[in-house]
Amino acid sequence: MAELNLNIHGHTYGVACDDGQEERVYEVGEYVNQRATDIATAGAASNETHLLVLTSLVLADEIKELRDHLQAAQTNQSGGAPQQGDAQGMSDEEQARIAGAIDQLSSKIIGIADRLVK
Q1: How far apart are CA 68 and CA 57, in angstroms?
Q2: What residue spans define the domains of the chain?
Q3: pLDDT at residue 114, rounded to an integer
Q4: Which of 59, 81, 90, 108 has its CA 20 to 30 A from that of 27?
Q5: Bridge-partner residues for 17, per DSSP?
């Protein structure tokens, strides 16, 4: 298990991840940091906890939009019923891996927000 330090909006958070996943976690952390910075710059948050909750909601909305888009593409391609693979030729296995990664990211974001609220 690898231990990393992520910088999210000027604060350092210790995060554990599976060995070999460090680069991905840093990449995702930078994305979260950028979204938090965007929200903070817009003046939408009243404090750090509020900022992280808003960031979590924005990221969850992005995830839902991607899922809805994927489902609509599958439905449109098959004439009404979801079909295996999408228009870009992704297999069911690839789609499942992407959905799993999105679920893990969402869970981690919610976990961070929960710990900050407590």
Answers
A1: 16
A2: 2-117
A3: 63
A4: 90
A5: 2
